[in-house]
Amino acid sequence: MGDSDTKHTRELDFLLSRASTDHLIEPAPEKAQLAVILSAALRAPDHGKLRPWRYVVIKGKRRQEFAELVVAAMRRTTPDVPQKKIEKRFQRFSEMPMTIALGMHIQPDGKIPVAEQELAVGAAAMNVLNALHAEGFGAMWVTGEYSDDPQFLAALGFASPHRIAGFLFVGTPEKGPSQTHRPDVEDYMAIWKGEPVSFGADK
Ligand SMILES: Cc1cc2nc3c(=O)[nH]c(=O)nc-3n(C[C@H](O)[C@H](O)[C@H](O)COP(=O)(O)O)c2cc1C
């Protein structure tokens, strides 16, 4: 059953039309617009109301400085990282219209498991991706081994146990929305009939 076969609302159509892109040009959202977009994060489910999400916005002339931190962390994490990879990553971080680091303010010793706090940060990030899409912006969630580097995290303001869940690249899509192929949802759902289920996706 495809997305378009059944009658549904425009709002659902909007969700069904989101796709990631890192082909991004200016403009990125300005300050007031970004505040509204990030407010969507505060609508994410969040066990214990811990509000574990934190957003560090990197834009303008700070991008180059930040790209330097990224490549220094890459070198520390993977000393034999190829120079080509360094150059590519430097270029991406210094030229993206905006990068948002997805901070996770973790409470390790409380009642709420850390995994649930991480899930809340992920759910909030998804809301931000959809809010960006709603406002006509494009985005892509990326990460890498370097984003666990303690020195890098400290430079962003996250000392252990706080970490980041990667970055959102943000800007205006260079091209119109590309309709990427999506698998058939029937392969990922099952009605439970009192027996263990199996999924088409796993066959
Ligand atoms: C936590 C997380 C980290 C990701 N890291 C990367 C990454 O480093 N590089 C990459 O190409 N895609 C990464 N992705 C996948 C992209 O964000 C994106 O989902 C993928 O390109 C598919 O596009 P779609 O969102 O339109 O399905 C990551 C996704 C998640 C949820």
UniProtKB/TrEMBL annotation:
GO molecular function ontology, one term from the record: oxidoreductase activity
Gene3D superfamilies listed in its UniProt record: NADH Oxidase
Names of required cofactors: FMN
InterPro entries assigned: NAD(P)H_nitroreductase (IPR052530), Nitroreductase (IPR029479), Nitroreductase-like (IPR000415), YdjA-like (IPR026021)
Keywords: Flavoprotein, FMN, NAD, NADP, Oxidoreductase
Residues binding FMN, per UniProt: 18-20, 43, 47, 141-143
Pfam families per record: Nitroreductase (PF00881)
Cofactor-binding details, from the entry: Binds 1 FMN per subunit.
UniProt EC number: 1.-.-.-
Domain Nitroreductase: 26-171
Source domain of life: Bacteria
PANTHER family linked: NAD(P)H NITROREDUCTASE YDJA-RELATED
Family affiliation: Belongs to the nitroreductase family.
Protein's name in the database: Putative NAD(P)H nitroreductase
